[in-house]
């Protein structure tokens, strides 16, 4: 793959689009920080520098850890109960940061009356349709266009206007709100376990506002069905330049019929459509199934009151959600507007359909894949504020977002989910186990510089085949530690397990374990982070479950400056 070349890629999101520290353990904030007495380290755009540290555990987690796998992970203060992040105080809202270093005022109107959300009485369900299907439904399409047009026509200070709706995202995502009680820390709903619930609530109110404006409470947002071949394009309904659904700041090279690349990281590499579709479907399977055994990897890392923002994104947030933002935004704009930057993403109506499908992935995870809710109160009781369809300011909690039917909507089930069958297979038909690497070709001294492909042998915690119950309780994870590089550089490397370094597998093969991708942003110093990749399924597919070690190969793809790798480990992490 060619180097990422566009200078605009250097400034897309205020936070890096692909920090891929989605699996970075959270370190508890130092006590003086929690007490708010000492100024904590700057957090704006500077949150990658998380050292490898013990995962914070609450009492419940520790007990499970003891029950399922001995003393693993019982580090830190096991009796600390974390408090949930509170709803922001709108009167403390300040300017939000744009990636280019300038600021923008995204603050909503304030009011002193806040209503606590109550689940609606059950009524008819709203069914969210696939965007590619509504092109053939003129009645639906007319309502949708009318709703967006009416939102666009509301005065800018009406909290239901399209402009204000876009600013909701800007304030919650670009440092507009300090955390209540920890004013040195911003509220950030990305790169952590708030990603799914925050966006579910955001869409809920957006959809209710649309229904109110057109007088149809059954109106439902369409979803951009990017996880199936029929939807792997910008949906046609958004491309009519005379429609209210159109946004001018999108990548001109990615108009339909250009096929979406769910692993997009800045360049359109030369892959035929059939291969791209196979890779996209395999990516969906990997993110939703093979690598989603643990809450931490699926939802994202815990983020509680007083924590530094952005502890780490979950699988879907990382890939493909971020990639699709990046793929859609206009690379000729300074910050990749609109979809390529958080502060502006909500200006594009396509954003809400993109997130409708992200939200659908959460529903599929729970309804079809046996996924469960996080039971920790610091997640369940996290609060947000939104203006509703009557312009009331409403306080919501994560716990009320868990069941979409209680919120009055479902997803059209007559849409196929082809990736459910896209399990990767091992490339090698024989010798599925360790690659034949002579010991002289293995890198053994760390930290090591990643200037060329390196292979290392990494010992597993145990060479005994784990039972299904053990796998359900703990996920085996490859950790690449202390990945260090200059923050203003683009970095991408691919990770393979038990493959031959001189003839590597495609992205649809089991040997391809994942990638590290960092898109740079304004950052003066080095970034040091970790990458965690789930390998429980990969070990099964490679027939390597009884091997005592694995050969891991890192292939640098992009990165001008030196990339240092601190070391490797294979660990078991609790799944809940
Ligand atoms: Cu709040 Cu798709 O980002």
From TrEMBL:
Q: Does the keyword Thylakoid apply?
A: yes
Cofactor(s) recorded in Swiss-Prot or TrEMBL: Cu(2+)
Q: Where is the composition biased (Polar residues)?
A: 1-13
Question: Molecular function terms in GO for this entry?
Answer: catechol oxidase activity; metal ion binding; tyrosinase activity
> Which cysteine residues pair off into disulfide bonds?
93-107, 106-170
Q: Where is this region: Disordered?
A: 1-32
This protein is called what? Chloroplast polyphenol oxidase II
């Amino acid at each position: 793959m060619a180097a990422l070349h566009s200078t605009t890629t250097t400034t897309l999101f205020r936070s890096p689009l692909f920090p891929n520290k989605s699996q970075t353990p959270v370190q508890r904030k130092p006590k003086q920080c929690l007490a708010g007495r000492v100024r904590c380290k700057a957090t704006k755009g500077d949150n990658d520098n998380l050292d490898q540290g013990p995962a914070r555990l609450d009492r419940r987690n520790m007990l499970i850890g003891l029950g399922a796998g001995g003393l693993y992970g019982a580090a830190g203060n096991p009796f600390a109960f974390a408090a949930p992040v509170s709803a922001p105080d709108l009167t403390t809202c300040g300017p939000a940061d744009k990636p280019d270093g300038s600021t923008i005022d995204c603050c909503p109107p304030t009011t002193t009356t806040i209503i606590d959300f109550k689940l609606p009485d059950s009524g008819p369900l709203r069914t969210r349709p696939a965007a590619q299907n509504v092109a053939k439904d003129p009645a639906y399409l007319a309502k949708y266009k009318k709703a967006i047009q009416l939102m666009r026509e509301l005065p800018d200070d009406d909290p239901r206007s399209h402009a204000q709706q876009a600013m909701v995202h800007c304030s919650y995502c670009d440092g507009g709100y300090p955390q209540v009680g920890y004013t040195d820390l911003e509220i950030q709903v990305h790169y952590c376990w708030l990603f799914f619930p925050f966006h579910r609530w955001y869409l809920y109110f957006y959809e209710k506002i649309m229904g109110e404006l057109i007088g149809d409470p059954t109106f439902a947002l369409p979803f951009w069905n990017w996880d199936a071949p029929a939807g792997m394009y910008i949906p046609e309904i958004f491309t009519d330049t005379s429609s209210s659904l159109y946004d001018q700041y999108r990548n001109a090279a990615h108009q339909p019929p250009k096929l979406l690349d769910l692993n997009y990281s800045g360049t359109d590499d030369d892959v035929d459509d059939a291969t791209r579709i196979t890779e996209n479907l395999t990516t969906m399977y990997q993110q939703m199934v093979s690598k989603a055994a643990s809450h931490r990897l699926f939802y994202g890392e815990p983020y509680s009151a007083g924590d530094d923002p952005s502890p780490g994104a979950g699988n879907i947030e990382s890939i493909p959600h971020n990639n699709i933002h990046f793929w859609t935004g206009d690379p000729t704009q300074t910050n990749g507007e609109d979809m390529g930057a958080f502060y502006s993403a909500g200006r594009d109506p396509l954003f809400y359909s993109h997130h409708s499908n992200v939200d659908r992935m959460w529903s599929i995870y729970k309804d079809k894949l046996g996924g469960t809710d996080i039971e920790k109160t610091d997640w369940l009781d996290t609060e947000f504020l939104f203006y509703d369809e009557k312009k009331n300011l409403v306080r919501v909690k994560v716990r009320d977002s868990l069941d979409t039917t209680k919120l009055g909507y479902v997803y059209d089930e007559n849409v196929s989910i082809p990736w459910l069958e896209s399990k990767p297979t091992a490339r090698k038909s024989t010798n599925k186990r360790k690659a034949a690497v002579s010991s002289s070709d293995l890198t053994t001294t760390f930290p090591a510089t990643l200037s060329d492909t390196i292979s290392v042998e990494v010992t597993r915690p145990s060479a005994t085949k784990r039972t299904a119950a053990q796998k359900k309780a703990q996920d085996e994870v490859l950790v690449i530690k202390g990945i260090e590089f200059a923050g203003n550089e683009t970095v991408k490397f691919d990770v393979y397990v038990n493959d031959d370094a001189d003839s590597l597998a495609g992205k649809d093969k089991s040997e391809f374990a994942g990638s590290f991708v960092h898109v740079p942003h304004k950052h003066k110093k080095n970034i040091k982070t970790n990458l965690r990749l789930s390998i429980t399924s990969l070990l099964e597919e490679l027939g390597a479950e009884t091997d005592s070690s694995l050969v891991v190969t890192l292939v640098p793809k992009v990165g001008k400056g030196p990339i240092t790798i601190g070391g490797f480990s294979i660990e078991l992490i609790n799944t809940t």
